[in-house]
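task queued by scheduler; priority normal; single chain, no ligands, no partner chains; default sampling; output format set to structure tokens
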Amino acid sequence: MTEHFNLTAVEAAKQIKSRDLSPVELVESLLSQYDSLEPSLNAWVYLDREAVLADAQQKQEELEKGANVGPLHGVPIGLKDIYYTAGIPTTACSKVYEGFVPEYDATTVTLLKNAGAIMMGKTVTTEFACMDPSPTKNPWNPAHTPGGSSSGSAVAVASRMCAAALGSQTVGSVLRPASYNGVVGFKPTFGRVSRYGVIPVSWSLDHVGWMARSVEDAALLMQVMAVADANEPITVGLPADDFMAGLASPSAPRIGVIRRFFYDNADEETRQHTDGILEQLSRAGAAVEEIALPDSIDTAIEDQRIIMAVEGAAFHQPMYERQSQDYQPQLREMLRRGLETDGQTYSRALERRQQFTAEMQALAGKADVLLTPSTPTPALPDITNTGNTMFQGPWTSCGLPVITIPSGLAASGLPFGIQLASAPFSESKLLAAARWCENVLGVELTPPMSRS
């Protein structure tokens, strides 16, 4: 019999709706997993077990009364500690925000609650979702980085302490930790999901994203949260889409593989693994064609670094001037650099980024999905940083939707992942293609530091 904590969000929601599982039983199972693993993994910064159990009991009573229930009714979701939660501390894991308690929920949190989800707790983030490593441990090997900045969310999902968790991505903070920990990570198109009530890093780069253990779960959360928000001017008021519809019987996609830059910067094992995945997908019916990356990739990484530093400094300037000593070293240095960057440098970076975005959008139109390795290597044995961001950053900079799915294990026993990206606002096509690849590969990973 499957332990309840092993259920995906979709599986748990179905069993709760059919009365085969109660929300209380699910929460108790997840809390048991939390009690067993959290002392060694440090994935959570806040979890109120009494409140979570009380919420589960309320959800059970609503079911018993015959209330109409949402698609996530009774399913606990983790929240990165930069999402505003009314009456609950939101500290960005920083001394600077110590004791801060918002008066309202982030829009995404409200939407999850409206769908019936239970807020499991707040997951550990690197300070202000930036580069200084967090205390969270990789459940595959604690000597290796779990990635960041959404380290707690990725580890909580991988270790079965919750079925899904929200993260955020300014460079690579959803895709990289998801890949390092062997789970699905999804970042929608810039402007598709509201960021209102999320502590910012960079106004023009920040994306909401999330981790789950299946493409189906990623699609379900997209279904719930892809809503225009009057409080967030960048959200696009597109017609409602059914992101789940194409998952039942997806067709083999046209895959554009990008080797330039990605293969150049990957290690040999990652290159060979990705080629093996492409061969497997091709044999199953996918049309695979190599696609050339534009030359604008040559400046995209540095331009993103400049933009992030300047925009981050603009937000943090009052706090930095008042208490710079309370910031961790790498973030403090980024803010200093941002404050010292002149307007011309920032403007030129934005101009080059506009060109890169236009060229990447055109590139995405040449195939159903673009495919690359998710990271240059599996998670490295170095916990002084959060890993190399260069394979995820380009997708954030140009705002395209992208997903990483687990694709196997390296010789080190650590997870590999592949990234799939698509044209702007084509999340339905992207999720269907990812589901097809997930079905073909049949990879489902469970870390050794998680009970089976």
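post-processing summary
- The longest helix spans residues 297-323.
- The chain has a mean pLDDT of 97.
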